[in-house]
Specification:
Length: about 100
């Protein structure tokens, strides 16, 4: 399958997607850990995560798909939200919680 099609399928079939280094249970970088913790603090229980340390093709493809050079990357309801700093800022302002309120449980 074309990597861009695979990524599109992932972000459009899962309400919340986190492309990260490691897994939410065992993150391999501080930014990924913080982002996973923020999503957990917002009550996200249906998180779909992709470990970009294992999925090398997706690691390169997601940067092109999102037009974003850094990891982690967060998608909500198929929309690219941002990386670690943007996710943190949205969380601190309460906007992330509002976005996640539209996610089916």
């Amino acid at each position: 399958m074309d990597i861009q099609k695979l990524i599109h399928e992932q972000v459009t079939t899962h309400p919340v997607v986190l492309y990260m280094k490691g897994t939410p249970q065992f993150p391999q970088c501080g930014y990924s850990a913080n982002t996973a913790n923020i999503l957990r603090a917002c009550g996200v229980t249906n998180l779909f995560s992709v470990n970009l340390l294992v999925e090398h093709e997706i690691r390169e493809g997601i940067k092109e798909y999102a037009s974003w050079p850094t990891i982690p990357l967060v998608f909500i309801n198929g929309q690219f939200i941002g990386g670690a700093d943007i996710t943190r800022d949205l969380y601190q302002s309460g906007e992330l919680q509002k976005m996640l309120a539209t996610v089916p449980a």
